[in-house]
Design brief:
8 helices; 207 residues; 12% strand; single chain; six-stranded parallel beta sheet; alpha/beta
Length: 207
Amino acid sequence: SIYEEKEVLLRKESNENLKVTIPGIYSQRRRDYFGLIEALKKFSPDEVSMIIFNFLGSKKDTYEDLGLGIYESLYELKSLNYNIEIYDGFIPEDEYELELISTNIIFCPVNISGYPGEVYGLTKDTASTAMMIKYSIPGLLPNLLLYQSALKSSVITYDTLSNAIERLIVLQKERKEYESLKIEAQKNSKKYSIQRIRESISLETRT
């Protein structure tokens, strides 16, 4: 992905709530939605009331992906007063982009070996890191996921999904830690600017 400064200038993130976006279709093979739902249930709605969990995707209704079941489980959580945003159909590109522009953290609860023969970070990339680069957004990733080393200072990792939520609660309360991550995300994204890529290509052609 390529860093686009105009996208960063348009960003209007929340200063009180922590908006956490989980991008992608509702597919259990790709992301552990049911594990995340069970982890969220370990916390009361009040404990996570200042965190918006934005499930930025739509249900993929196939037997293997369990999209309808994921949607229904998320809807049930929302009815219990968890601060959740869900979508039941196609999201227009401009709306999708507006949601990302207002995001504080991109959360990627990816199933690293969700598909036979595919391993995220090894044989397959996740779009979440591309969005982190394009919009200069810090990320929350599994500690076993391989990702670009250039993003390390703007990424926090977790070992369990309950641990991931605990880390988000701390970030929401400790805004200085979040602000530090945001500054690092801006620095790291610029490594992927068109100018930097051109300079890198030019250097390679001269050596």
